Amino acid sequence: MELQNKATALWSNFFNVKMVQIRTFHMTWFAFFSCFFAWFGIAPLMSVVRDELALTPNQIGWAIIGSVSMTIFARLFIGWLCDRIGPRKSYTWLLIIGSLPVMGIGLSYSFETFLLFRVLIGGIGAAFVITQYHTSVMFAPNVVGQANATSAGWGNLGGGVTQFVMPLLFSVMVVGFGFSEAVGWRLSMVVVGVIIFLTGIAYYFLTQDAPDGNFDDLRAQGKMEEKKKVTGNYMQALKDPRVWVLFVIYGACFGIELTVNNVAALYFMDYFDLTLVTAGLVAASFGLMNIFARTLGGLFGDNFGSLWGLKGRAFWLFVCLFFEGCALMVFSQMHVLFLALPALIVFSLFTQMAEGATYSVVPFINKKALGAVAGVVGAGGNAGAVLAGFLFKNVIDWSEAFFILGIVVTCASFLAFFVRFSTRQEDEERANFAAANIETLRQRALKANAELEEGLTAIARKNGGQPAE
User: Fold this and answer.
1) 15 burial level (CB within 10 Å; 0-12, 13-18, 19+)
2) For the chain, domain boundaries
3) How many Å apart are CA 458 and CA 450, to the nearest integer?
4) Residue among 7, 194, 201 nearest 88 (CA)
5) For residue 213, what are the β-bridge partners?
6) Cα–Cα distance between 299 and 278 in angstroms, integer?
7) Terminal Cα-to-Cα distance of the chain (whole angstroms)
8) Per the CB 3.0–4.6 Å rule, which of 318, 364, 394, 447 could disulfide with 416?
9) Cα radius of gyration (the chain)
10) What is a single cellular component term in the Gene Ontology annotation (predicted)?
């Protein structure tokens, strides 16, 4: 699928929401932010839930695994659904249906019911695939890496914001409104679920599938492949070994981020003797790096692509992943807060840059099955989180678990060298990249010319209709 009229610039048009590409960009990151916030909304409140439901460490481990396991299957399905019905409808239904278990977790009064809702909430993690899909079809090759990285990074920011907002919201429910702690954490999740529901409605009315219209209309005009070919393209993408290499790589970066989001607050409470709110604020520093770190990964991915083509994007991915693994091993050995916090921030920087670098490569693997590739690679992130979760479920020391993960990530970084492209595709993408840059320059020239004419007209009016000297 090669859609036309993609935006060739992001930052220069950043506030021009009249452009459907820019409006969609802002809706995608906010929708994903809301989903990520809800997905991990219960994590910073786990100490309260643990005490009320009398959860054992083993049960907490299963809750961590359950929260990310459902997302594997949801992401595989949602990628196919995006190719079939378009990202607009896919996101709308995911948000509306996903809001139900977010609110419903308040009905949990045993480990079994809590685990059930925790698993179901994991389904909204598939929002990431739609976000990456939607920005990929809206932006040209010269900016698609940074568009993907920024929309996903600001979405992932929800995982950091929730670490300190949810304890504050919980405090408002308990202290401000006088509810018990048992009712307070439940009502906090209801508030989040309502936000998710309303965002789903807004997404339907404020976006469209592609720059030139919705998929149904484009198919009717013969500008897109028919729905019946979607499944065939999906299966073809599954046969590409590069997709599975990226599956593993994304597990080594986003999977680690999911794991840290789940365990960070408890880790800092139990290992550094911090309070609930303080531990949440410290844990939030990891997720808050998404405000710029993932964007850097995609931005440098585009720059490496400009200099060295698609192989440059793959090499940049290796660099990010390698230093992520090294930084994680260093963090695992920090046992005092003033050393652990900067180590956590450096580790977070490379983790999120690796995620951005991954999705600066994904749009070029198979354009006819973009949803399939985005879905499978995205599922890899959750598969990695599930496997990592088993380390924290067992009785080994959590700092030791982090060190083991650091070794695994460092080894996985070398898989980036197996993401290769044919000479023909390299040449095609260089041409597309150059064409997008030319279009960017053309638009800037038109804008400058329009501003010049507007300025001359204003001067002429000031001179009483006489032309400016």
Assistant:
1) exposed
2) 14-421
3) 12
4) 201
5) 210
6) 33
7) 52
8) 318
9) 23
10) membrane
Assess contact for 227 and 115: CB atoms under 8 A.
no
Instruction: For residues 162 and 45, give the distance between their C-alpha atoms in angstroms, rounded to a whole number.
Output: 10
Q: How far apart are CA 7 and CA 140, in angstroms?
A: 6
DSSP per residue, 32-68: HHHHHHHHTTTGGGHHHHHHHHT--HHHHHHHHHHHH
**Residue 115, both tokens:** 């685990």
Q: Where are the alpha helices (DSSP H) in 175-292?
A: 181-206, 215-220, 230-238, 241-272, 276-288
What CA–CA distance (Å, rounded) separates 253 from 354? 6
Q: Indicate the SS3 state at residue 417.
A: helix
User: CA dihedral defined by 248, 251, 253, 259, rounded to 10 degrees?
Assistant: -160
Tens-digit pLDDT string for the chain (469 aa): 456 789 998 988 899 999 999 999 999 999 999 998 999 899 889 889 988 999 888 888 888 888 888 889 999 899 999 999 999 999 999 999 999 999 999 888 899 999 999 999 999 999 999 999 999 999 998 899 999 999 998 998 887 788 889 999 999 999 889 899 899 999 999 999 999 999 999 999 999 999 999 999 999 888 888 887 888 888 888 899 999 999 999 999 999 998 888 788 888 988 888 887 888 888 888 888 888 999 999 999 999 998 999 999 999 999 999 999 999 999 999 989 999 999 999 999 999 999 999 999 999 998 888 889 999 999 999 899 889 888 887 667 889 999 999 999 999 999 999 999 999 989 988 888 888 888 888 888 888 888 888 888 888 777 766 555 5
**Contact predicate 384/337, CB 8 Å:** no
Q: Is the dihedral of CA 164, 168, 169, 173 positive or negative?
A: positive
Q: Please name the CATH architecture into which domain 14-421 falls.
A: Up-down Bundle (1.20)
Is the pTM of the predicted complex or chain greater than 0.85?
A: no
Residue whose C-alpha is closest to residue 287's, from 266, 258, 267 = 258
Say if CB 195 and CB 34 are below 8 A apart: yes
Token couple for 209: 């599938």
